[in-house]
User: Fold these one by one.
Assistant:
Number 1:
Amino acid sequence: MTDIAIPRNVPISDIDPFSDEFLGDPYTAHRELREAGPVVWLERYGAWGVSHYQEVAQIFRDPETFCSSSGVGLSDFRKEKPWRSRSPLIESDRPEHTRARRVVTEVLSPVAVRQQKDHFMERATILVKKLVERGSFDAVADLGEAYPLEVVPDLFGVSKEGRENLLPYGSMAFNAFGPRNKHFHKAMENAESVTEWIMDQSRPGGSSDDGLGARIHAANAAAGNPAELGTILVRSLLAAGTDTTVNAIGSAVLCFAENPEQYAALHADPSLARAAFEEVIRYESPVQMFFRTTTRAVELGGVEIPSGEKVLMFLGAANRDTRQWGDDAETFNINRRVIGHVGFGYGIHACVGQMLARLEGECVLTALAQQVSRIELNGPAKRKLNNTLRGLESLPVTVTAS
């Protein structure tokens, strides 16, 4: 724990953002944090907490002051060894980050993503059609997991054998951003075999010659970077590009089941699918929180924070801050203007795969809107607790065909 004097104007909170109670339902605690002030001291972890939109956005806009290279989780890489080699996309600063991101954005460009739309839409339409014929299904396993685990590995050129390792690896990566609690240890139970498969797929020659993975390696080599960087870039994208989209799709189905009037609006106008997915990201925030570390003394929300301090950004809280989103911030509304939400990050560290995630979400919601007139819960939703992500373990639903 940091040995510093906490200013008198800083509220001290005993909220544990990694407790089962918080992870299961963070929103009551988010309200308490927002009401306490723009910056609070999280005494359980010796870190600063930020829940207001304005201050979270300030942190994202100033990556030199709020660095990522010391780790975007609770662990401080200046003092602790990471559980795996650092991601050059999310756990690095300029110029290393710029070099790595340039390789990925060259391959995963807006044009390249748009070229996948017809194929992604076709796969979503076929999958939803099969589910509609069944009538009742688990919206997590049968849709939220099934769709990304087909289209994304295909795009990367990943082997069909072993794709089940993508979800546990993502669970490992995101749980590692929190403390070494039971969620972390459970995620690490099969770490060796899962990591071995991921690394095999990430190395040069590990994926098909025409896949995104091979193209990243080619772009990395053309830039004169070491081959190891290409491997870590592919690994990072595989880790981050599955779990978050799985959780977003599952959350979308739950949001519409709980808000039938919003689904009726989408069903009446499937062109709202893209906007609806953005509202899901804002409202449920599949990635709930990330840390930064201060590189100098800085004022944040009227509080002087010393250099070398961990700051926890509550993205889910910022995305429901009434100062930014109005009095109905905690209402799900697909007609809301949600430009600027921090569900995909912000600034130079904005999620590099967000265009791909948006395309997946848009295609799934479009396919549902075109083929399904009503979504109803067919049992209780079961949460999947994770130190960083918000998502579902299962979501039994029944759908009515259009």
Number 2:
Amino acid sequence: MAPVIVRGAAEPYRYALRAGVPRRFKTQVVSPDNHVTEDDCANRFIVSTRELFEVMKNRIPVERRTLDVFTHDIQREFNFAADLSVDQASVLAQKILCKSKVFDPRELRQALLRKMEAVLREEAMEQADAPDKVAHFLNVILAAHPELLQEAQKEALATTAELLEADELPAELVCDAPLPTSPRNIYGVTPAELNSWERNFADLLDRDANNLVHWWHRNLPRKPWSVNVLLPDGRGFYPDFIVGVEGRRTEDNALLAEPKFAFERTDEAPKVQAEHRAYGRVLVLHLQGGAQWMVVRYDQQHHKAVLGSEFRVADAAGY
């Protein structure tokens, strides 16, 4: 369908919102009455016996003898050996604690230390009575399994997150210059603010030969009608696209999609795990070699975003 253009002499170009597309979407926000605490997060910080034994492996106290060359005294000490030194683990753990914009890192650390001590005591581990060992256990767990804290933060924040209707979309798209036609955009045109990657993805949606894509919308950030997705650290995130997909079992059959160039960046990794209560998991994509769209997934073992399988529009409903 050709875009509906309403324009008089010397007036801007106006493209009307198409019939049969959503008029408004739902967005996630942190409740203004947010009373989530660091203790709430720590209580959800679940450390399994498997993770404890991973930390314990080659880290258990072993007696070691060293010769002090100055006093010739034989000293007995305990070597809490680890792949990470005490200082390295402490630095990495602090970085992970500081990622959240909601939880105070000092208060969160104290709450997690209390939880870790309780876990060690329940496992009948003698290190529970040694504060420095408890602290190192926590640091190594955070460094080796940051997803445990991310999941705890996500669950704690979920209790305060609200799903609200955003404002209605503008009835028309207004611009000073004419825009290229798009058969599936909700305004019938390709918005001017798309960068080259976004235009490439929009073209992929417009070329859908199976007619599975009913419509697509450029989700601009921080507009009254924008869709926000909450990340585990409390930040807001606006996926670039909202796509109506045949057979997708979400509200309005909507899929949130984010073409991403620098997907490997540490601060981008939480987006790969982001999920919207109404629209499901966010599809993060990377254009490989300028021609092939790849799904970006989260590697739990190495705690980073990596390229997965090739993306096909035919798979979008089940993503």
